[in-house]
Amino acid sequence: MTKKKILITGGAGFIGSHVVRLFVNKYPDYEIYNLDKLTYAGNLKNITDIEHNKNYTFIKADLVDANQIHSLFEQYEFTDVIHLAAESHVDRSITNPLDFVMTNVVGTVNLLNAAKASWKNNLDNHLFYHVSTDEVYGSLHDGGFFLETTPYDPQSPYSASKAASDHFVRAYHNTYKIKVVLSNCSNNYGPNQFPEKLIPLFINNIRNNKPLPVYGKGENVRDWLFVIDHARAIDDVFHKGKVGETYNIGGFNEWKNLDLIKVICKAMDKKLGRPEGESEKLITYVTDRAGHDLRYAIDANKIMNELGWKPSLQFEEGIEKTIDWYLANQEWMDEVTSGNYQTYYDKMYTNR
Ligand code: NAD
Ligand code: DAU
Q1: Model confidence at 226, in pLDDT bands (50, 70, 90)?
Q2: Which residue, judged by its Cα, is nearest atom 19 of ligand 2?
């Protein structure tokens, strides 16, 4: 059997870094190639612990550059792809939709084209795994869960771009017979998440006694999964998933934003030695996100029953670990919030 040379895209980002680490450590016989453009969200400090491993190579490249991606497939002869690179923040997609079209749609099609050209003589020996999101299914209003069969109904420029990329991946399977597998996961939390997303943003603001900007009334519901459990699911789908299939990933762990924020506030009061209730005083209601999806909730029975995956952590343990990580890694936080972060923050939250 030929040696696996897996191209993982977006491996300097939040989820990608956990996936790269898991594959590099768990599969010493695989060669792992991490391709990342290193946008504001990409940070090689997320993976310093594995950067010198024999089976790991970093490639700085932009998925939007079709020629560069084709050349890289010629040079390295990747056998498989796990595609995570994306523009990932909904608020940024509302300000700059075209960036999302370029990376998430054009970038994915460039990657599919390069894989198709490189694998054309033995399509059966290769797999293209596309990592997607539950947001493609739209917003739940009256109970129920997202199933793999739920019709797509994306509501934000971000989710529309991810939905388009999912469609292209399935179209390449149907039309060109590329072997593909897809997964759609709920909200992730854990170490190394860029502090534009709710949980690390609020941990950092509490620490610095800054307002906690709650969109609308804080009644929106998200379904949270610890990032390492998502990485474990990706491992299972890559190795055991059925070609052409989609797997929803989630931990049956729904939280109303305000309830989740109160849990974080309480834990932070304890960890920082502040009187109980102190951090909650920072809660500030701000103008709602445009087109804000009300509720996401994943039915993860298919991956649990067919691939035997289940989350390893309860939420209480996961959020505790997460807060501890951010408090212990203040240097990481200071670094990622230097540079353009303040400009982003002012634009997003001043006079909101
Ligand atoms: P992230 O924003 O933290 O990281 C994205 C990475 O992609 C960064 O390292 C960035 O440098 C890289 N990248 C961006 N544009 C690129 C380009 N043009 N070429 C090459 N690299 C580029 O994102 P994340 O939260 O880790 O999400 C990873 C994937 O998982 C995305 O596809 C996202 O849609 C999906 N997802 C995320 C969540 C979540 O809760 N964060 C949940 C479900 C699915
Ligand atoms: O569901 C999966 C998706 O989860 C992923 O595909 C996305 O990449 C990821 O960003 C995430 O999207 P959300 O929009 O749900 O995550 P975010 O952390 O931005 O927001 C979570 C909830 O908190 C949402 O209801 C909006 C709210 N929020 C967010 C921020 C940043 C606030 O109330 N205030 C804030 O400042």
Answers
A1: very high
A2: 197
- How many domains does the chain divide into? 2
Closest atom of ligand 2 to CA, residue 133 = 6
| Percent of the chain whose pLDDT exceeds 90 | 97
Buried b (16+ CB within 10 A) or exposed e, 186-215: bbbbbbbbbbbbbbbbbbbbbbeeeebbbb
Report whether 230 contacts 193 (CB < 8 A).
no
Residue nearest to atom 4 of ligand 2 (CA): 187
Q: Are residues 142 and 278 in the same domain?
A: no
How far does residue 258's CA lie from ligand 2's centre (Å)?
13
Q: For residue range 11-45, list pLDDT tens digits in order.
A: 999 999 999 999 999 999 999 999 999 999 999 99
Q: What is the pTM of this model?
A: 0.98
Q: How far apart are CA 193 and CA 127, in angstroms?
A: 28
Residues 217 and 238 in one domain: no
Q: Is residue 209 part of a domain?
A: yes
Q: Is 308 a member of any domain?
A: no
For residues 237 and 269, membership in a common domain is answered with no
Domain that holds residue 98: 5-189+224-249
Q: CA 15, 11, 159, 242 torsion: positive or negative?
A: negative
Do 272 and 134 lie in a common domain? no
